[in-house]
Structures are given as structure tokens and as C-alpha cells.
From TrEMBL, chains A, B:
GO molecular function: iron ion sequestering activity; iron ion transmembrane transporter activity; manganese ion transmembrane transporter activity; metal ion binding
Organism: Brachypodium distachyon (Purple false brome)
Coiled coil: none
Protein name, entry field: Vacuolar iron transporter
Entry comment, domain topic: The cytoplasmic metal binding domain (MBD) is located between transmembrane 2 (TM2) and transmembrane 3 (TM3).
Compartments, record wording: Vacuole membrane
Catalysed reaction, written as an equation: Fe(2+)(in) = Fe(2+)(out)
Designated gene of the protein: LOC100825674
UniProt function note: Vacuolar Fe(2+) uptake transporter.
Keyword Ion transport among record annotations: yes
Pfam families, sorted: VIT1
Amino acid sequence: MDGDVEQPMLAKGPPSHRERHFTAGEVVRDVIMGVSDGLTVPFALAAGLSGASAPSSLVLTAGLAEVAAGAISMGLGGYLAAKSEADHYKREMKREQEEIIAVPETEAAEIGDIMAEYGLEPHEYGPVVEGLRRNPQAWLEFMMRFELGLEKPDPRRALQSAFTIALSYVIGGLVPLLPYMFISTVQDAMLTSVVVTLLALLVFGYIKGRFTGSRPFLSAIQTTIIGAVASAAAYGMAKAVQAR
Amino acid sequence: MDGDVEQPMLAKGPPSHRERHFTAGEVVRDVIMGVSDGLTVPFALAAGLSGASAPSSLVLTAGLAEVAAGAISMGLGGYLAAKSEADHYKREMKREQEEIIAVPETEAAEIGDIMAEYGLEPHEYGPVVEGLRRNPQAWLEFMMRFELGLEKPDPRRALQSAFTIALSYVIGGLVPLLPYMFISTVQDAMLTSVVVTLLALLVFGYIKGRFTGSRPFLSAIQTTIIGAVASAAAYGMAKAVQAR
């Protein structure tokens, strides 16, 4: 699993058939992102408001409203950002294609520049340049990847990713809020929420660490600390506003 | 500006001196991200709560608490994510280095595989492979970039980025909340907040479009729509909870 989540997996094969496969790893990454955020801000908001003596109904109102707004913002925002990247890729590809047609010598020289960065001599990379020039489609894809560093985005991923992140945010956000729905005293609800959420943050931080290949225990602690600090900040702010 | 924000700018030069420069474009991107989120969720939460007849003090309490929690979550979370990426890069680099030493033939064959994807023949890329093998440091950097697609992260960027995003989120969040601090009637405050924030979303969406090279007017409309939909969701949720 080491590093799987962070590397886009490219299909090996002729460039004209290269597509960026969506992998289970990418869905997992979206879930991790959504749940992480959902576990943190709604929790902090609820804990902060409870600590500042707000009634249960209010904590729930604010908390669930935030989850709704946050899910929409992440989901729609993520979707539009992905579409924007896809448009950007198309525009850059078109421009690169025009340059290959209009000023091939300049483009060929750019391949040389890239190769030269690795200490390669013209007589060493010359045949590569010639080979690419023979195959304009491959040349174009080479420039997209190695000059511009752009991966071809999968249009279906945008929608899927947005939906996954938004849904994960909702699930993450419900964890700290459910106690307020079922426990009548706000102090008891808050205590339950804190315990349940901190446990969830620990577990989730650990899972996150495993999937991203970083140290899971460290990740668990860090994730939990972020939740704790965010809550403290929300609590402090709520108290400050109430003191006005 | 087209595409500037999205491409990391690599310093051209000998690989051993290559570093990922932090550019004004990256700071701008962080500001855009932070302000976008700050303008959306706090606005939606405040509008949703106001619309569901919460008193001004409550809207402010919840709104500012959310801004505090959100800024911490984005800032700390972003910082730790960047550190985690930097650790991941170091680990992958170490592993790649060990492979180059232990199984150079396999690694050399991998260069060939990458080249072959672009229709290049062994006699064309052979000299490149030999050239890289001569220079293990350059070979390592070539594999990092072209096999794994990883850019060397700048450690200072993590802290700077986190701080920028968090501060931007706070600034974005204050825009919809300031009216509630200075206007006593919650309906008037909400109306002012809605007008001011929708204008801000339009302007900001436009600026975002300019910097990312996508159509600015479209970006302005989309950004504003996200804010509107998120508010509607927050309002609907707040009403639903109050109706329990």
C-alpha cells in the first residue's frame, strides 16, 4: 500500500491508448479527505458551542447546517475544480500541438533542454529527439508529461470524486453530531461526542497513515491533535463572542 | 498568467542544484483556496441560521467558531499533509537509490520502458540510458521525476502555505460575518451579508478564473452558485432541525 494512494497509476501501453485509470486507491484517498474534514470541523463547532453553553437544539442546528454547507462546498467545489483542470489540460495540449506544428525546431530544442538537465549530451539524446519527431502524437504526449508535467485527467473521475468526498464529509460530520440527537442533556451529549470523536480521529488517523505510507501512530496522534486544537479554537471564539 | 498558478516552476540547471522554487503563483493559489472556502461555508452557515430565525449573537457565535475551527483544520491539516508528502518523497527517493545500487539492470530497463511508451526504439534511447547510468545522481532524479512523477518538495513551503491558507480562510470568513457584528437587526444583517458576500463571490470567482486561466466570467458565476447552493442547503437543514 506504500505510496499507492498518492501516485496516479498510468496504464503502460502505446501513448495513444494511455489513460489515467481510476484506482481503488483514488476512491480511498477521497474518502480519507472527506471523513478527515467531516470529523474535524463539525466536531469542533459542536464542542465549541456546547462548551459555551449553547442548548442542544442549537448545537445540532449549527452543526448539521455546517455539514450540509461543507459537503456542498467540497463536493461542488471539487467537481468544478476538476473540470477546470480538465479544461486547462485540453487548452495546454492544443497550444502544445500548435507549437509542434508551427515551430518544430523550438519544440525539439525543448526536449533537448529537458534531457540536458540530467547531464545528457546532444549525441546521446539526439536519437530520442528524432524518434519523437517521427511520431507527432507521441511527441505531443511526451511534451505534455515531461515538459508541462500534466497528467491527462479522466472526466468521469471529477463527478465520482466530488460525490465521494461530499458523502464522506457527511458521514464524518455525523459522528460527532449523533450524540446530540439522542442524548438530552447537552453536557452529556458533548462528553459523548468528544469521546466518540476523539476515538474516531485516532482510528481514522491511523488508517490514513497506513494508506499514505506514513507512520500510522504518528498520523493518528496528529489527526487527533488537529481535532483538539480546532475545538479549543472554536470554544475560545464562542466564549469570546458571548462575552461581548 | 495562463496556467502559471498550476505549474510548479523548476529551476533549470544541473540536477544536483535543482530545487522547487516557491513562486508568487503558489502564494496566490493558496490565497485563492483559502478565501474561496472562507467565503462559502461561514456565509452559508450564517445565512442558514439567520434564515431559520436564530438571533444575531448566535449567528456570530456559530459563524466565528466555525471560522476558527476551519482555519485551524485547513492550516494544520495542510501543513501536516505537506510534511507527510515531503517524508513520502524522501522515502521513495531512498528506495529508488537502493534499487539503482542493488539492481541497476532492472532500473536501466525501466528507463527503457518509459521511453518505449513514446514509440522509441532501443537503439534510439540506448545512449540516454548509458548517459544516465554514468551519472547516478542524475539517474536518481530522472527516475523520481519520470518514473514516479514526484517533485522535490520545498520544506519551507509547507509552513508558509499552511499559514497563508489559514489566514485567507479567516479573511474570507469575516466578509459574511462582519455585518452581524455591526447591524443590530438580524434580518438587516443577513440581507447585507448576502449582498456583500454574493458580490465578493462574483469578484473572487472572476479573479480565480483569471489566475487559473479558465474563463473568468464562468468562474465568477460558478463560485457564486456554490455559495448560493451551500446556503440553501444550510438553511434547509437548519429549518429541518428546528422543526423537530
